[in-house]
Amino acid sequence: TSPLAWLRTRFYYLLIRLYFDQEFSIEEFTRGAKQAFSVVSKLLSQRKLDLLDELVSAEVLQVLKEKISLLPDNHRDALAADIDAIMYTTEGDVRIYYDDDGIKFVSILMRFWYLNGANLPDEVPGETKVFQIVFGDESTKEKRHLLTANYEFQREFTEGAKPDWTITRIEHPRLLE
């Protein structure tokens, strides 16, 4: 990311600690986000959407139900991310919202790069190259794809609200469109 974006996100983390949650830690949040991403992506892949009620917003869940039913099996398999297969994670946009009723929200967009062994073509729809990594020698090579996903986490910080983060956006570019 650019140095300006890095500074901006660090400033927002400071605001979150000062005004919303004095114990907030981006390292701890990232660990939890990786775990949530792994669990949710596996449940999506297995079409177990009824188990996502507490993790994903109702609006996102409704859209996912429509999209998952139309996915080919290889694309659905490619959604699953084992936590050990997550190669890189970075935070994207961080936002602080106040609505007209005084309700306070924080949202953090997380970007994940993960390896997946799904049987995908070299080129996926939309003319985007999927990176392939080959493990082993010629006789036992195993092809993996380096895929990306964007998950946005949102939490309400209004007094009396549950202290839970909810996923309010799920994007698996070129797989879940």
UniProtKB/TrEMBL annotation:
GO terms for molecular function: ribosome binding. One of its GO terms (biological process) is protein insertion into mitochondrial inner membrane from matrix. GO terms for cellular component: mitochondrial inner membrane. PANTHER family: M-AAA PROTEASE-INTERACTING PROTEIN 1, MITOCHONDRIAL (PTHR13333:SF5). This is MAIP1 protein. It comes from Ardeotis kori.
